[in-house]
Amino acid sequence: MENPVVVEVTRGDLVESVHRGGFALVDGAGAVVASAGDIARPVFPRSAIKVFQAIPLIETGAADAFGFGDRELSLACASHSGEEGHVALAAAMLAKGGLDGGALECGCHWPFDLPVALDLARRGGEPTALHNNCSGKHAGFLCTAVHQGEDPGGYVGADHPVQQRAKAAIEDLTGTDLGADVCGTDGCSIPTYAAPLKSFAHGFAKLVTGEGVAAERGAAGRRLIEACMAAPWEMSGTGRACEKLMQAAPGRVFAKTGAEGVFCGALPDFGLGFALKIDDGGTRASEALVAAVIGKALRGDDAALADKFDALASKTLRNWKKITVGAVRAVPR
Amino acid sequence: MENPVVVEVTRGDLVESVHRGGFALVDGAGAVVASAGDIARPVFPRSAIKVFQAIPLIETGAADAFGFGDRELSLACASHSGEEGHVALAAAMLAKGGLDGGALECGCHWPFDLPVALDLARRGGEPTALHNNCSGKHAGFLCTAVHQGEDPGGYVGADHPVQQRAKAAIEDLTGTDLGADVCGTDGCSIPTYAAPLKSFAHGFAKLVTGEGVAAERGAAGRRLIEACMAAPWEMSGTGRACEKLMQAAPGRVFAKTGAEGVFCGALPDFGLGFALKIDDGGTRASEALVAAVIGKALRGDDAALADKFDALASKTLRNWKKITVGAVRAVPR
């Protein structure tokens, strides 16, 4: 049974390409408020659950020991664009732990955003591990290890206490067992575990409602989510989808992208969490679908805000002469 | 009825993402030798049919008048990478027609290949219209207009003789009527017409067999296809999929990529044409599928060469530390 078409790409009057996928919108008790497609099969969440992975940074006391505020906590949950401010903030976080970029084991890549990459090249620069989109998350991992008196070397390995703590948090929040059979290696070399969209959505709902989660953990999760909502640029970057979504409704929407067409997030006012996956991994489609899912969640309560998100669910496509040629749009349901 | 999954993306032991699509392998008489999915619905071929669009360049005598050889003809069918050699060759073609890059109406973009773009930025350069991946095709259009004594201005418009000739060639080769209802605007601003995969595949088969096509047109098409096979770098670029595919079997395989997950091509020895489309537009998937389709076509006749293409149908995925994390592979059928 295939997932439904959730996003269409048009050219002229025709549909040129289609994206299939699924989403789950879940409340604190785990009830599915809305969904599409298969929300029970295991999905790799990739970067969309960085908040879960950062919970030990708070719970161990490391964040407070190093004086991390909203900007640092947001970067610890970020897939950032590698702009100079992101790089500097990651370096500053590591410095608090007595470390520098040499401690990072995430690997190195050019910034994904072309203008950012071109700017770096023009200045004769080359990316370092600090430019890696995950460097803030890894800075959080390293600072936690330092705080715990652990040897940070090998902190990306599944058996290192850093990854064991992250895994335990994800298992607790999703209510799933994450064994080797659902384990893969992420782009930044840490383990990534697949679980149902429904379970990831429920995990975010637990955090924003406090239901089904220990009080300390719920507070830690809300602190991270609030930091991301307060500092969306740090979590993403200039012109990025996550920044746009959260700036459209400050303090009311948390949305985090993950590679291979994933988004997770929460609507704290409504006590809801959401998770979605585009079958083919297409980010243009996940960005359209997440706006539509948020619009759907808001529709009954705040029509004007829902309209704003529905508008974000459709993006005009222009060619190299800026002529409108088509659109990428979530399929109305 | 949905198209089958044709390409899988794995991480660890799990399938992380999937791509659906279809393909048609057709002989000169129009018989479908092999296929998958819906090969009858209209698909925008995008750049995959640049050979059809370049036929008037030969038929009008313009190519001979300007002394175009394999390199120029290949560039006239190219979606090139905007490397210095591509830019220089496009400029040289235009100069033959007494024009320069200022005549191009394709618009301007940074080279799609990151290393090429970074290199240009490092040198303090900015792209011009000559860097546009379609600049060779447009140089061919402009030189044809000059040869015909036509005002080249507005040559991208549907009503200009240049586009009228291109449309007539596509209609003839595909055996379809290309009306406004199947017309869209391409990235480079010329019209693009949707037709069935089966029809595009048949068009390429006609060219390589001479069946169902006027002798002069068949010869023109074969001349263009042979130029592309002889000069694959000009048609694509360093490390590009089309270059790799054609270099794997020199003179025996013609393969041309199109945006939104399309490939068209031909196997002249076998008198076959092919066309494929990935539903979601994903190029990583079209590149895997085209290798599998070519391997399938070769299997009964040249097992060693078929093995070579089957190997190209599976690509190891490595992360930022070069650790193997998964694969993109055509689903064995």
From TrEMBL, chains A, B:
<dbReference type="Pfam" id="PF06089">
    <property type="entry name" value="Asparaginase_II"/>
</dbReference>
<protein>
    <submittedName>
        <fullName>Asparaginase</fullName>
        <ecNumber>3.5.1.1</ecNumber>
    </submittedName>
</protein>
<keyword id="KW-0378">Hydrolase</keyword>
<dbReference type="GO" id="GO:0004067">
    <property type="term" value="F:asparaginase activity"/>
</dbReference>
<dbReference type="InterPro" id="IPR010349">
    <property type="entry name" value="Asparaginase_II"/>
</dbReference>
